[in-house]
Amino acid sequence: MKAIIRKELADHFSSTRFLIIVSLLFMISFLGAHLASQGIREVLKVGGHEYLAGRVFLMIFTATGGFFPVTVFLALFGPLMGLVLGFDAINRERAQGTLSKILSQPIYRDELILGKYLAGLITVAITLSALLILLAALGLIGAGVTPTPEEGLRLLGFWFLSLVYVGFWLGLAIVFSIIFRSVATSALASAALWIMIAFFLPVLGQALAQVVTPTLDAQRPTYQELADRDLVNQVVSKVSPTGLFSQASQVLLDPTNRGSSQAFQMAVSSRVNRLLLNHFQGGLSLGQSLALMVPELLILFGFTLATFIAAYLTFVRQEVRSI
Amino acid sequence: MSTDSPLKPLDKPINALSDNFGPVVKTRDLTKRYGRETVVSNLSLEVQAGEIFGFLGPNGAGKTTTLLMLLGLSEPSSGEAWVLGLNPVKAPLAVKSQVGYLPENMGFYQDLTAEENLKFVCELNNLKNAPLAETLSLVGLLENRNRLVSTYSRGMRQRLGLAEVLIKKPKLIFLDEPTLGLDPDGIATMLELIERLPREMGLTIILSSHLLHLVNKVANRVAILNKGRLLALGSVTDLAHQANLEPDLEKIYHYFFKADQQEGAA
Ligand SMILES: Nc1ncnc2c1ncn2[C@@H]1O[C@H](COP(=O)(O)OP(=O)(O)OP(=O)(O)O)[C@@H](O)[C@H]1O
Ligand SMILES: [Mg+2]
Description:
The complex is a heterodimer. By secondary structure, chain A is mainly alpha-helical. Chain A has one domain (2-316). Chain A has helices at residues 2-14, 16-46, 59-62, 70-86, 91-95, 99-103, 109-143, 149-179, 183-212, 223-238, 241-253, 262-271, 274-281, 286-317. In chain A, helix 7 (109-143) runs antiparallel to helix 14 (286-317). Chain A starts with a helix and ends in a 6-residue tail after the last helix. The model of chain A is unreliable at 268-276 (pLDDT under 50). By secondary structure, chain B is α/β, with parallel strands linked by helices. Chain B is built from 10 helices and 9 strands. Chain B has a 6-stranded mixed beta sheet with strand order 5-6-7-3-8-9, sandwiched between helices. In chain B, a hairpin with a 2-residue loop joins strand 8 (221-226) and strand 9 (229-234). The interface between A and B is medium-sized, with 22 and 27 residues. Magnesium ion binds at residues 63-64, 104, 176 of chain B.
């Protein structure tokens, strides 16, 4: 299996396709982080934001700064990394006639599929490390804030979360590369599912929520109406890996985030200023944030595992020869 | 692997393994069905050590399917097979480490050089210090070893395929139409290599091909398949005797073929 992983890694890092996607991801998240860090710097200049101490650094990843926050960007476009590494994993070998050659060497089929999956995951891990380190450096220099150890740990958690998330898309793409004999078809199918899950599902969720829980007065929804709608939204977002990743990363990177719903926010803000509340409570500890995101992480992990198992089973059962 | 192999095939068994296990390949009622269609039907045959065994039959006869089952790459629907005394379904790795397979459309990584392609096969076989240069020179590719495979001609690719098969020092090799798409010179080179191998490396070869006159030249024995069924099995002389024909494989092939069709019609 080492031989397969080694070859796949060499292939990935010299593949033009992958390099294009990665440079795109790097450039855009750089832009996002840069704008965010400038915004932070402006705010800090004014002063009087001591209550923000210990959570400014991570705002580089979560603040909008007039553009996508890095987390949202990764949620939407990070999948491309996994897809581009996986969509031709098996069918390319089949088309160029190397599949039967590899399989006639003394290795198990499992090793081939596992090797390809692991190589993809390692590639993603390396790329994500590089990306997060560079963005952090940008924060250090651009916004002039140093991370606390806890922020470092949160970032590490985010790295792992992203790896699991991109791993889902990698597994999915590999499944398509097994099912579809044509590389073009599996590329198209991967892209279609990506657009579906990352972009349409949230909209669909909101639409569904509105249908299921109509509000009497759209301008002034009642607390109960909001709560109902939240419930539907939450359910929908929990069947979408993108939704799960977004929620979990928000909780992880923003200590003030309680994974709270609109209804909760309304309930809070009607009584006290939310920021003030957070100020007094000083945000959540790392442990509290982790505990909050456990369900999302577990479900996401389940999704990722499911795509890998699907890839494994379809491949091991498939005839070597294409029809 | 013995380098002091016998001068002529069939003079004496090749190595200890084949000594112990009798025939190098043995099948009993080997059958493969895809859905309702039976593509290999109750195939029973034996291949002896040191033989060049011709595996003949029209397109779709089931030759490749049989080879895949012998390699453990496709599971038989029923029946059994032994390769080097091993069951390819139960011990696929042991079989694959001793059997070389040149698929009908051998593929390569186009963006790697010939030598890099060969090295990858060595890695998959866990071979350290494999004789890369020797093997490449055996198939006449030593000078071109650092060229990308994408610049290779069909004949060169086919010979590189043979190098990838030979590098693991197999006891048995399956060549599935190794002359496909080659020009007369390429065919001659390939044939010469095929003839040398049993003598020089102590190999047993199963050769599937549509070029009957070539098989006639090199094969010790042949099997003729049609629609998954075995029509004839034996040396060309034996079969000629059975058919009351001169020992010309082309005529023999058509004889058994017609006989089968008449039987089918009756
Ligand atoms: N995966 C598959 N699913 C269904 N049928 C298949 C599959 N693979 C092969 N076949 C069928 O099995 C039959 C035997 O095919 P096989 O490739 O073994 O023939 P062959 O003797 O090698 O022919 P050729 O000389 O064309 O290489 C053919 O009819 C083919 O259509
Ligand atoms: Mg064939």
